[in-house]
């Protein structure tokens, strides 16, 4: 049955007819909708949502009255009360679900509230993304109505006092609409399994009985799955068992470093579709073939603001500075990096999500993720972004003809000066010295500040080549597999200490 022939619920069908050509007006509408819904919550009363709604300039008034929050301030002041079972704190009702995010480079998991309204909005965006496939050329129609293999966290959630917590992918699978159930693999029974190895083995056992058209997940775990299936059944490629596999839906990490490793498992090319689905909401998705970026969701369940990611707005640790200017979607410029600020149907208000983005096509509201506010290195003014790192690793892999699926980097003292220490995953035969020299060369070409500092205070870089399994095992040991969990590109604080201790064992 082709997916496009599915009879959608009336509410979904109505929402899909919203205009898509005026992001500014859409965003104002969404903000008003959020404020009206939450005006009788504790947060809404404290920050005068009724007064904001009655003002002639809703957005301006909202920005004047409501302060910017990071996770710590939002959780300590508000979400902790909701987690304790109090209703109507930041969003109407009690919060029954919390997504355990992968945390930052410095901290462990965070509890992000998940509401019915947020899940509804996420599902609406997913449907819109599916329908956007109609715009693709040479679409393999036979694959459209086939099953979706979604490898993520367990749907067997942790029970708290009045709430459940787990990976967002697990919560999403558990709350998936009835109409999607026939397409969903590995199915409810396997999805409940918490142990990653057990889950993977059961997926491998069931693989021959499925007709997969889409795979969804973090590239590293999908690659492991394909590898195990091919090995188990002595196949040449994954297409020997799933001939209709045509789409890979991915997000959260740059896919380019994985492409080379992916190709050896495929019998034919896949259509790669990028998404931006965070624990806090479905933020953007690729809605046209060969698009440089993803379309920002402006008409569903999130109000977006943008803070220039520069020295005027953020300090060297990635913390926002007092008086940082905030822009709306009509005020942004292409080619500049912004820290993303969101207000959502889960009770996140002017919440600094921690990601940095760049508009590559303002007219289409298309963005790319460029990094994290905390995931960059600027020990001596080198201003090395995750975007720089990703491109350097990609170029390095192409130049040396090797697969580099994972990496992380940290800054450290080097005598009276400083150094960068890179840990790079590579299972191909290579020389660490050659990798180091070429990586340094690529970074100098990509970042002028880095090039300058390499001749002054940034005296050295170190490169350790590790098996890919080392990175995967570290994430498994921390219980961060599948779903939303990505290896931090920059390690600091507690996470760095844990990583170093792990490598010594």
Topology:
Elements: H1 10-15, H2 23-38, H3 42-46, H4 49-54, H5 58-65, H6 71-83, E1 97-100, E2 111-114, H7 116-131, H8 141-144, E3 147-150, E4 158-160, E5 163-166, H9 168-174, E6 184-185, H10 188-191, H11 196-206, E7 212-216, H12 219-232, E8 247-251, H13 256-263, E9 271-278, E10 281-285, E11 294-296, E12 302-308, E13 337-344, E14 351-361, E15 366-372, H14 386-400, E16 406-414, E17 417-425, H15 432-446, H16 448-453, E18 458-466, H17 468-477, H18 493-504
Parallel strand pairs: 1-5, 3-6, 3-7, 7-8, 8-9, 17-18
Antiparallel strand pairs: 1-2, 4-5, 9-10, 10-11, 11-15, 12-13, 13-14, 14-15, 16-17
Helix pairs in contact: 11-12, 14-15
Q: Please state the overall shape, judged from the principal axes of the Cα atoms.
A: globular
* Number of continuous helical runs: 18
Q: Could you name the ranges where pLDDT drops below 50 across 5 or more consecutive residues?
A: 1-8
Proportion in β-strands: 15-25%
Mean pLDDT: 88
Secondary structural class: alpha/beta
Number of domains: 2
The biggest sheet amounts to: 11 strands, mixed
Description:
The protein is an alpha/beta fold. The chain folds into 2 domains: 1-374, no CATH class; 386-504, GMP Synthetase, Chain A, domain 3, CATH 3.30.300. Helix content is 35%, strand content 21%. It contains 18 helices and 18 strands. The protein has helices at residues 10-15, 23-38, 42-46, 49-54, 58-65, 71-83, 116-131, 141-144, 168-174, 188-191, 196-206, 219-232, 256-263, 386-400, 432-446, 448-453, 468-477, 493-504, and strands at residues 97-100, 111-114, 147-150, 158-160, 163-166, 184-185, 212-216, 247-251, 271-278, 281-285, 294-296, 302-308, 337-344, 351-361, 366-372, 406-414, 417-425, 458-466. It has an 11-stranded mixed sheet. It has a 4-stranded mixed sheet with strand order 2-1-5-4. Helix 12 links the parallel strand 7 (212-216) and strand 8. The longest helix has 16 residues, at 23-38. The chain starts with 9 loop residues before the first helix and ends with a helix. Mean pLDDT is 88; it is low at 1-8.
């Amino acid at each position: 049955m082709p997916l496009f022939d599915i009879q959608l619920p009336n509410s979904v069908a109505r929402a899909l007819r919203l205009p898509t050509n005026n992001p500014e007006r859409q965003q104002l509408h969404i903000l008003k909708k959020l404020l009206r819904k939450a005006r009788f919550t504790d947060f809404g009363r404290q920050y005068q949502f009724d007064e904001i709604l009655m003002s002639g300039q809703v957005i301006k008034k909202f920005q004047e009255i409501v302060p910017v929050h990071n996770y710590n301030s939002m959780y300590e002041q508000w979400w902790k009360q909701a987690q304790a079972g109090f209703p109507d704190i930041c969003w109407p009702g009690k919060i029954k679900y919390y997504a355990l995010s992968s945390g930052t480079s410095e901290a462990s998991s965070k509890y992000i509230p998940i509401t019915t309204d947020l899940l509804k909005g996420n599902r609406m965006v997913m449907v819109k993304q599916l329908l956007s496939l109609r715009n693709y050329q040479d679409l393999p129609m036979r694959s459209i109505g086939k099953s979706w293999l979604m490898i993520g966290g367990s749907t067997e959630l942790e029970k708290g006092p009045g709430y459940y917590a787990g990976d967002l992918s697990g919560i999403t699978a558990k709350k998936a609409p009835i109409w999607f159930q026939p397409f969903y693999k590995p199915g409810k029974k396997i999805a409940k399994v918490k142990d990653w190895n057990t889950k993977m083995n059961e997926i491998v056992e069931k693989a021959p009985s499925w007709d997969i058209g889409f795979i969804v997940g973090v590239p590293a775990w999908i690659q492991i799955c394909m590898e195990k299936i091919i090995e188990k059944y002595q196949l040449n490629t994954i297409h020997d068992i799933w001939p209709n596999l045509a789409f890979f839906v991915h997000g959260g990490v740059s896919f380019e470093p994985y492409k080379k490793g992916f190709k050896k498992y495929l019998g034919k090319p896949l259509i790669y579709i990028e998404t931006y689905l965070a624990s806090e909401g479905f933020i953007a998705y690729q809605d046209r073939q060969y698009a440089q970026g993803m379309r920002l969701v402006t008409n569903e369940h999130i109000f977006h603001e943008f803070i220039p990611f520069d020295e005027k707005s953020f300090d060297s640790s990635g913390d926002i500075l007092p008086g940082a200017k905030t822009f709306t979607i009509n005020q942004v410029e292409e080619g500049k990096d912004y820290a993303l600020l969101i207000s959502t149907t889960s009770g996140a208000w002017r919440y600094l999500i921690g990601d940095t983005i760049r508009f590559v096509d303002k007219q289409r509201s298309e963005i790319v993720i460029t990094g994290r506010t905390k995931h960059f290195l600027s020990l001596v003014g080198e201003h090395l972004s995750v975007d720089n790192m990703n491109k350097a690793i990609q170029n390095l892999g192409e130049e040396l003809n090797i697969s580099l699926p994972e990496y992380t980097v940290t800054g450290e003292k080097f005598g009276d000066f400083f150094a960068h220490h890179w840990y790079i995953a590579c299972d191909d035969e290579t020389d660490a010295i050659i990798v180091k020299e070429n990586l340094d060369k690529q970074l100098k070409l990509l970042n002028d500040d880095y090039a300058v500092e390499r001749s002054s205070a940034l005296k050295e870089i170190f490169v350790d080549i590790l098996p890919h399994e080392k990175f995967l095992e570290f994430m498994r040991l921390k219980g961060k597999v599948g779903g939303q969990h990505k290896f931090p590109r920059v390690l600091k604080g507690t996470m760095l200490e844990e990583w170093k201790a792990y490598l010594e064992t």
